[in-house]
Amino acid sequence: MSALTTRLRGKSELGIAALLGILGAVVLWDGLHLQTTFSQTDPVGPRTMPIIVAGILLVCAVLLAVNVLRGGSGEAEEGEDVDLTHPSDWRTLLPLVGAFVLNIVLIDVVGWVISGALMFYISVWALGSRRYVRDALISLALSLATFYGFYLGLGIPLPAGPLEGVL
Amino acid sequence: MSVVVGYIPTPEGEAALERAIREARSGGTLLVVVNTSRGDALVDQRFIQQQQAENLARRLEAEGVEHLLLQPLRGHDPAEEVLEAAREHHADLVVIGLRRRSPVGKLILGSTAQRILLQAEAPVLAVKA
Amino acid sequence: METLNLLMQGFATAATPMNLLFALVGVVLGTAVGVLPGIGPAMAVALLLPVTYNLEPTSAFIMFAGIYYGGMYGGSTTSILLNTPGESATVITAIEGHKMAKAGRAAQALATAAIGSFVAGTIGTALLVAFAPLVVKFAVSLGAPTYLAIMVLALIAVTAVLGSSKLRGFASLGIGLAIGLIGLDPVSGQQRLIFGQPLLIDGLDIVVVAVAIFAVGEALWTAAHLRRKPMSTIPVGRPWMGRQDWKRSWKPWLRGTAYGFPFGALPAGGAEIPTFLSYITEKKLSKHPEEFGHGAIEGVAGPEAANNASAAGTLTPMLALGLPTNATAAVMLAAFIQFGIQPGPLLFEKEPDLVWALIASLFIGNTLLLLVNLPLAPMWAKLLRLPRPYLYAGILFFATLGAYAVNLQAFDLVILLVLGSLGFAMRRYGLPVLPLIIGLILGPRAEEQLRQSLQLSGGEISGLWSEPLAIVIYCIVVVVLLLPLIIALVRKARGGRPSTLEEVTMGATPEAAEHHAVHRSAGTRNPQDTENATENKEKV
User: Per the database record, which ranges form the DUF112 domain (chain C) (predicted)?
Assistant: First the structure.
């Protein structure tokens, strides 16, 4: 057991191989369930492409797993504002994702102005800003501006939620 | 015992540093230079780079004061870092530089200087550029 | 002659006050995203897609073209002033340009980059005008088997040539193709990968996928690895060049253009290789080879021109064949699909107004870039001080807004988050995102061509190579796939001599980078002296 865990340590990339494998299996399963009636107008049928794609995914999954177990690893992406010397900062990431999820849950209930402002506010906080008043004003201004911009400028009515009639 | 100075490479920062050097030399105490950034932008001209830091060190050496350059990057407010350095090094004087600001400008931003003035335990000397 | 008439009509469309305004907005926005860290032209166009829903397609594309060219301009500005190349194509610019800036010649570096970009962009666009109709004329005579072959080539080339790991490239391609399968099969009308979820029947909105992968994935990735130590830019005034600088710049501009355009037009040619080649050439031809690595103006002028010419080159296959070869072109193709315009060789025939207005706007945008930005360089440098909480929160905010506005359903946001997390994971584990997007865009079209090919041949598999050109292209595909193997064999046979390309990538830049490192370590010991030494060399 312990030998296995040591071997698997730092091999989180196997998760990607697993993901590819699952995806490939799903595509294959779905593709094989399609009905094909041979017709002169469409000899290829709807199944061929899914089977090809599933093949690519499954082969990649296997090769990637082998590659990782042999010590290969993908290079994390560099960027102007990216510092790879420290690991992923979950204390920034989790609140960001939280803000995103909150927005998904709230947007149809309380409308864009409130949920959008809330999302921006929490995101700004998660990213390290601590100017609470200024951030709140900016969040509100941004969501109001986009609401009216989309409504008046583009003719897209974003949901107003309980503020319906006020805005 | 020490003199703590908040330093940025601007006229007001230079004025503060100059005064702090004089104070440290006359008192024969340690000079703690704090140069920091919240690090929330890709570029912060107030944070001095290696080259400037070396020049600064050489200059302080030439002045003959015992010194310490702190460049903490913990995402804290500059005021917080100066205050903390003052506590840690038992400062008997904190020197800061002030920009001449219009009354309107003062309204918009809560200034670093104001926070240090209000919260420092040691006497604070505010130098105008 | 006919081309010229069409182009003139294009100018007439593009030069209306409204469209000029869109070009200006695009150019300014493009430069801004080029300058800002963590956001590039592909992301900017993706974020703007939903906003342009109700616009005239022509105006939208005029704006996108401005963003594309402007992004490149902004990227070179940061490379020179900050030494942070945002993409591999500006690595070279950063090497020489930043050295120039440190030696007090930032104004000249910026000027040669800007004017070189203008020259290369204008010539490149002229080449586009000349070649695209020829390609179209040739392409409309081709049948489905050849198209299929071309698409396979594009998919394989992007996957196998770019990026450091082919395996991870193909994994990404597979994911993109799988996403492209979701929805109703266009021929038989059967549901694929829908799992009883009615919201998936129309397939994933390509806008949502592009925003998720380029904006959400990138913002989350950067947010998790923020650089904590701030940098400082080199102060600069208005860019200008002296007579000597002009004399040393104009030939590299032209040579860079000559490298850039053809590479940009090739699938997976990209901007990286021509910038390297241009750099090597200039170093060889220069009368001051000793300045290279210390801030030679030719080393900025050539690669910058190559970079911009390749951008124009990229648009040739995109407009003439509907083939995207880089991220921005891919997102622009997604925009065509969003507007219900079928990309491909028939584009010139069916939407001549749009195409020629777009091309004319490239000339206009290029000129605007020069006029607007040459005086504004110091202002752009200030943009780098924008606190990043606002920047990245803003990207997420607008990504959400855009994805939601497409259909006004929260379900799209779930997709956005799921695919955004996928984008994050891909960046974490080194899977390139470009094959995914290109697979998503080209996958369904390749399937269509595949079915047509075999329909024509009555189900005979040999229908795939029934056209001679298709055979040639499949041969190229095989060569592309086997190239690394061939190179390895040749090298073994020759006894370990590095190939030219490796000489370029291994030889040139690391050498310069070494200079950099040496310079820096020397700087720690006695910075003043080394700095002076560089400056002296500069003035020789």
Answer: 20-438
